[in-house]
Specification:
This protein is of the alpha/beta class. It is built from 7 helices and 7 strands. The strands form 2 sheets. Strands 2-1-3-4-5 form a 5-stranded parallel sheet, with helices on both faces. Strands 6-7 form a two-stranded antiparallel sheet. α2 runs parallel beside α3.
Length: about 200
């Protein structure tokens, strides 16, 4: 059973080889206001992930053929920022922990409780949004409005780097040395200033 992804603000791919679980998850997720697509095996999940973008994948751990762990790895390889929650039975809790070590964002035990599903989906998507915002801030180069120094956060927590000159930043970041001169506009301004400059003569 498949529903068109992307109708809602967030889209979720459900992967489970039991139809009753797929139908239940699809109903509950759509009731929560998310878009949902459900597929019955890992192979189809990986194929769908190549064609469409999803914010989150909720996948059963144990399936015939391609496992949930392989779906996790394939999803992260396709889109590192995608959220992945592992759906597993109580007896596979150790495998779920192994999935967390492999990059899963969370796990959900079957049979699940509606409120628990809502909480874990919400937490995962909220964490994903936070990472996106942090990434935007990391990509912004901070320059002092007064002295024009640059904060060099390379290899450090964003906002904790030291302030260096543009010359020093370029040397550290790209191994480049700066040569100084005048652009045409500044050169013309410099020449005009020189023409109007009156030296002070001391007698």
């Amino acid at each position: 059973m498949m529903a068109e992804a992307g109708r809602w603000r967030k889209s979720i791919l459900v992967v489970d080889d039991e139809e009753i679980i797929r139908r239940t998850l699809l109903r509950d997720i759509e009731e929560m206001g998310y878009g949902a697509t459900a597929v019955g095996d890992g192979e189809t999940a990986l194929a769908v992930l190549q064609e469409h973008y999803y914010d989150l994948v909720l996948t059963d751990l144990r399936m015939e053929g391609i496992s949930g762990l392989e779906v996790l790895k394939g999803a992260k390889a396709r889109s590192p920022e995608i959220g992945v929650i592992i759906l597993t039975g109580f007896g596979d809790i150790s495998s779920a922990i192994e999935a967390l070590r492999s990059g899963a964002d969370d796990y959900l035990l079957k049979p699940y409780v509606y409120e628990d599903l809502a909480l874990r989906l919400g937490n995962c998507l909220e964490k994903q949004e936070m990472k996106k915002r942090l990434k935007v801030y990391e990509d912004i180069l901070s320059i002092c409005s007064v002295c024009k120094k640059i904060r060099n956060d390379t290899g450090q927590e964003p906002g904790s780097g030291d302030w260096v000159s543009i010359d020093e930043y370029m040397r550290r970041a790209a191994g480049l040395r700066m040569s100084h001169g005048y652009c045409p506009v500044c050169y013309e301004k410099f020449m005009r200033d020189m023409e109007t400059f009156t030296p002070v003569c001391k007698e």
